[in-house]
Amino acid sequence: MTQPPAASQAPDSDPSLTALPDQPKLQQGLICDAQTIFDRTAIEAQIAVLAQDVDNSTLRGECVTLLQAANKAGRAAIAEHFAKAPFAARALTQSYSYLTDGLVMTAFHIATTYLHPVATPTSGERIALIAVGGYGRGEMAPFSDVDLMFLTPYKITAWAESVIESMLYILWDLRLKVGHSSRTIKDCIRLGAEDFTIRTAMLEQRFLIGDHALALELEERLRSDLFSRDAQEFVEAKLAERDARHLKQGERYMVEPNVKEGKGGLRDLQSLYWIAKYLYQVQDVAELVPLGLFTPEEFDTFAKAANYLWAVRSHLHLVTGRPTEQLNFDLQVEVASRMGYKDRAGRRGVELFMQDYFRYATTVGDLTRILLTKLEASQQKGAPLLERIFRRRPKVKPGYKVIHNRLDVADPDDFLQDKLNLLRIFEEALRTGMLIHPDAMRLVTANLDLIDDEMRANKEARRIFLDLLLKHGNPERALRRMNELGVLSAFIPEFGPIVAMMQFNMYHSYTVDEHTIQVISNLTAIEKGELEDELPLSSEVIRKGLNRKVLLVAMLLHDIGKGREQDHSILGAQIARRVAPRLGLNKADSETVEWLVRNHLLMSDMAQKRDIADPRTVRGFAKAVQSVKRLDLLLVLTVCDIRGVGPDTWNNWKAALLRALYNQTREALDNGMEALNREHRGAAAKKALRAALPDWPKADLKRETSRHYDPYWQGLHVTAHVDFAEMLRDLEALNDPGEVVIRLYPDDDRDATRACFVMADHPGIFARVSGALALVGANVVDARSYTTKDGYVTDAFWIQDAEGHPFEASRLPRLTQMILKTLKGEVITREALVSRDKIKKREKAFKVPTHITFDNEGSEIYTIIEVDTRDRTGLLYDLARTLADANVYIANAVIATYGEQVVDTFYVKDMFGLKYHTLSKQNALERKLREAISEGAKRARS
C-alpha cells in the first residue's frame, strides 16, 4: 500500500482515530485548556444566581444570552489554536464535541432544574440524553450537526415533552443544527432492526446526562438484542451505501472532491469503523491491530489519513462559516494556504496540497480493501462474506494460491527469491481475472526496494511489463493496481512525480496518473468494439492495424513531463527518449514514441485552434506528421487523450473537427499536397450547391456561385451554402439596407446550433454579432465571416448553451428576436454586458496568463492572431470590437475552450487587404487587445 508523503504535512501528535470517548476522555485530547473552551461549572453557577432574581420566562432568555457568549468564545479559542496548529484535527474534533457537550448538558440542566423541576419524579419521569452519530463518536467539525436522542423508559410524559421542548428551543436559539429523536428502549430495538441508518447511529451512542441507569440498560439491550444479529446484512448495507455514494460523487478521484462523502473520503473511513465495531464491539480502531485485522503500520496509515481528512474538512468549515463538504477550486486555494502549503518549483501550493489529498484518499481505498478481505476470512470458513458473484476457482500457476477467489502468494519467502515476481503477480492476476489478495499486496509494497536498476534493465522484466500492456486485454486494471501499490513508479521512477498530481484548472477532471490510465482504458474500449458507433474513424484505423506497442507506451508517457516549469510535451519527449529503450523498444519504435509524446497535442491544437478549411493549415500539419502510420497513431492518441480528460469533454464538435483534419491530411499524404488546391475544392462546393438547389433558375445560380470569394466555398458545408443563398435572396427582396436576415439551425453533427446572419457589409459587423450572441447567453465555439463581391456579409457562428449543448429548438424563435433587437441597436451591448460578464466565485482562484501571438505563415492570405487568456462571457465581443476599432478585418474566428481558459484565434487582414507583417503594427494591436482583456477582467471580478 502506497504511503502518502509527509513532507508537506505537520506531524500528527496523536495518531489514533477517535474512540467513543466519555466526558473525561474528551478533556484529555483538547486543542487548548478545557475551561477556555467551556467552563460548565462557572456557567451553571451564574445561572443559579440569575434564577434567584428572574422568573422562568426571563430566565430562559438570560441563559441563552450567557450560552451564546460562551459558545462564541469557545469557538474563537478553538479556531485560534487550530490556526497555529493546522493539522491538529483530532484535538479540534474533540474540542468541538467538548464545547457542544457543555452547551447541551447546560441546556438540559436549565430545563430540568429551573424550567420544569420535579420534586418527586415517578418511574416514568426519567430521561437519559444520548449523543448519537458523529457527535456520539466525539468527532465534530466546526459546523457539524448535533444529533441527540431523548431516551425515556415508557411512552413520553407531559413533563418529558416540556423538558425536551424547552431544551431544543435553547439549542436552536444558539444556532445549533440539532437532529433529535425521542424514543424508548423498545423503539430503539424495533427501529434499529428495520433501518440500518438508525442502527448505525445508535452504534455510536454516548451517554451525556440524565438517568444513567436507563442509558446503561439501552447499551446492554442494543448489544444483546440488536448488534448481535444480521452481521452479514449490516455489512452489505454499509457497502451498498458506499457504492451509492461513489456513484453519486464520482467513482474516480475527482478534482473537486467531497471530503466527507466522496471516494476515499471520511465516510469511507467511518464505514470501516462501523463494520469493525459491529462485528467485534471495538471502541477504537486501534483495537483492530491485536485482532489481526490491521498491522500496526496500517493502523498508523489509517490514523494519519483520518487526521488529514478531518483537518481539511475542518478548515473548509472555518473558511466558509458553514458545513461545507465540497472542496471547490476557490476553497482549495484558501485551505491550502491555511494548512501552510507554499508555491515551489513551478507548481502552486494548492497543487501540492491536492496531490497530498489524493494520496491520502488513495490510502483510504487501500485500507478498505485490506479490512474487508480480512473480515471475509475471519467471518466465513466457506463462501466469503462480501463476495457478490460466486464462480469456479481458476487454476493458478505454481507459487500462488487462491483465497476466496483472490490471488495470494503461496510462500512469501520463495516469492521474494525472484524479484521479477513483483511484476509476475500482476500478469497472473490479469491472466486469471482475479483480484490480488491484500496479503499479497502488503508483501509487494513492503519490498518495493527490490525493484532496482538491475531489475529495470532485465530483459524478462521488460517482457512482463510490455505483456501487461499488450497481451491480456485489460491493461487498465493492472496499471491501476500497480500504481496504487507503488510498483509502477518503482519500475518507471519518472512516473512517480505525476502520481496523484492535480492540475489546478477546470478542464481536467482527474489527477494526471488517473488521466493516463483513463486514456489507456479508452483504447481498450475502442479495441473491444465498445465505441464503434461513437468513434467510427478511430475504430476503423485500429481494425486496419497499427503499432500497439508504440501507441500504449506513448499513452503511458504522454503526460509524464507535467508539473515542471518546462513545457510538458518537450520534457516528456526527453523522458520518453530514455524510458522507451529501457522498456525494450527498438530504435525506430522509441523514436516514434518520442515523436508522439512531443506532439501529442498537435492534432487537437490544429483541429480546435486553427481553420482546417484553410489549405495551408492542413499542409503544415501533413508536413509535421509525414506519414500515414504516424497520422493513425496520433489520431487514436488524440481521441483517447481528449476522452480521458473528463466524462463530458468529448463531443460531436471535436469529433467532426478531428475527422475533417484526418481525412484532409490523409488525402494530402496519399495524393500529394496539390489535392488541397482551393480552386479544385471550390468547384466541388459550387457543384454541390447546384445539386442542392435544383429548382433555382440558372441565372440565379450563376449569380450566387460567382458572388463569393474562394475561402467562402472552402470553409462551409453545402447546407450553410444553401442557407446563405436563400437568405441573400430574401434580403434583396426586402430592398432595405438596414435589414438583417437570421437563421438558427440545429447542427447535430457538431453538437451546436448554427447561427447564420446576412446583412449589408460595414465595419464592426463581426463584433456586433458576437455581442448580440453573448447577451443571449450563447457560447461561440466557431465563427466564419465572409464578404461578397457585391457588398454583403455572410456570418456563420456555431453556438452552444451554458451547458455546452445545442439550444433547444423551442428556444430558437425567441433567441432570434432577442438577437435582432441587439443588432438593430435597441439594446446597447457594452452596457448590457456589464451586469452579465462576471466570473463565478469558484473560478476566481485560477491564474490564467494572457499570451498573444501573430502568425503570418499559417495562412496564405491572413495573419493569424491567437489570444490565449481567461474565458468569460463578453470576451469574444471585447476582442472583436477592439480589432474593429483598429480597422482590422476579421475573416473568421476559431474558439477553443479548456475550462476557465480560452484560445480565440482570429484570421485577419488590414483595411488594405494585407497581412500584419511589421512588428510595430503587431505590438500596437497586442497592446490594445491586452487593454481590452484587462478592462474586461476588472469588470468581471467586480
Structure description:
The chain is of the alpha+beta class and 942 residues long. Among the domains are: 32-84 and 88-194 and 205-224, no CATH class; 233-379, Up-down Bundle (Four Helix Bundle (Hemerythrin (Met), subunit A)), CATH 1.20.120; 694-941, no CATH class. The chain is 55% helix and 11% strand. It is built from 40 helices and 15 strands. The protein has an 8-stranded antiparallel β-sheet, with helices on both faces. A 4-stranded mixed β-sheet has the order 3-2-1-4, sandwiched between helices. Helix 5 (89-115) crosses helix 13 and helix 36 (765-775) crosses helix 37. The longest helix has 31 residues, at 349-379. Residues 1-27 and 380-391 have low confidence and may be disordered.
Overall geometric form: globular
Strands of the biggest beta sheet: in what spatial order? 8-9-11-10-14-15-13-12
Q: Estimate the strand proportion.
A: 5-15%
Structural class: alpha+beta
Radius of gyration using CA atoms only? 34 Å
N→C terminal distance:
47 Å
Contiguous low-pLDDT stretches (5 residues minimum) are 1-27, 380-391
**How many individual helices?**
40
Report the biggest beta sheet as strand number plus sense, adding barrel if it closes.
8 strands, antiparallel
Average pLDDT rating: 87
The overall strand count is 15
**Helical content class:** 55-70%
Q: What oligomeric assembly is this protein in?
A: single chain
Question: Briefly, what is this?
Answer:
By secondary structure, the protein is of the alpha+beta class. The chain contains 40 helices and 15 strands. Among the domains are: 32-84 and 88-194 and 205-224, no CATH class; 233-379, Four Helix Bundle (Hemerythrin (Met), subunit A), CATH 1.20.120.330; 694-941, no CATH class.
